[in-house]
Design a protein that fits this description.
single chain; 265 residues; alpha/beta; 4 strands
């Protein structure tokens, strides 16, 4: 199968770290960054880049498990924090399950999707509260594949201040992770928000990131017309249709709230 062209990962790392440092310190006037560390590749790569940008002493990491968080993810999160040399006093573990149960008690029974989206938004509330206390920004962990496919929770993991890897596709993030020294078990771990038991990103999307990234790269980076992608990439049309369906359906997530103008009436 074809793959997205490789990049100069050293140059990419230096560029992201420089731009991130400039945004946090000069443009926003903050002294640090707050990151939710999940044990997955996106948060791991974002953590390592942020440490390069502003130093481990200025990074505040939160692990925010719920009852659906596997033990393996907690172990991987701590492993990444050790690799990044984040000081122990800068690490917090906050179990969000009691908060979710409080919502359920007051709102009534929730579907798994409702509870999952609520979990993502509870985590973001905690990250912003800690960022305010630390005079820091919330560093987002979303990648370009997730952004284009709409695979994030609006006002949840999408509600951040900056997205350091937001211009890298998932398969590129995995390669960058290996370059930065991540163990392969983390760099190539199947992606999942862990919002409910058994959830996987590729299961919900209906195709692998390898295929999705090729389609997205061809359309958005190479400018290939959508109808020509199946023939160009030798990929079934149903996959191209699925990617474009997800892209169009999630347009509202990538835009600010629509304002209905009345000033000219």
């Amino acid at each position: 199968m074809q793959t997205i062209p490789d990049m100069n990962w050293e140059a990419v790392t230096e560029h992201i770290a420089r731009e991130l440092r400039n945004y946090i310190v000069r443009e926003a006037g903050k002294s640090g960054g707050v990151i939710g560390v999940s044990g997955g590749v996106d948060s791991a790569v974002t953590l390592l880049l942020t440490v390069r940008a502003i130093g481990a002493q200025n990074v505040h990491a939160l692990i925010l498990p719920s009852k659906t968080t596997p033990k393996e993810d907690l172990e991987d999160a701590f492993s990444v924090l050790e690799l990044a040399r984040v000081p122990k006093e800068n690490i917090e573990v906050i179990n969000i399950e009691p908060i979710l149960e409080s919502f359920e008690k007051n709102l009534g029974d929730l579907t798994k999707e409702e509870r999952g989206n609520l979990a993502a938004r509870v985590r973001m509330c905690i990250l912003h509260q800690r960022a305010y206390r630390k005079n820091a920004l919330v560093i987002g962990t979303g990648d370009k594949s997730e952004l284009l496919l709409g695979y994030f929770t609006k006002y949840g993991d999408g509600g951040v201040d900056i997205l350091p890897i937001g211009d890298l596709y998932k398969t590129q993030v995995r390669k960058l992770g290996v370059f930065l020294g991540l163990p392969e078990r983390i760099a190539f771990k199947p992606s999942s928000p862990r919002l409910w038991p058994g959830q996987t990103a590729e299961g919900e999307l209906g195709l692998s990131y390898e295929i999705a990234d090729l389609i997205l790269y061809s359309i958005f980076e190479m400018g290939i017309a959508t109808e020509k992608v199946p023939e160009t990439l030798h990929i079934e049309k149903k996959y191209v249709d699925r990617v474009m369906e997800l892209y169009k359906r999630s347009e509202h997530k990538r835009n600010p709230p629509k304002i209905i103008r009345v000033s000219r009436h």
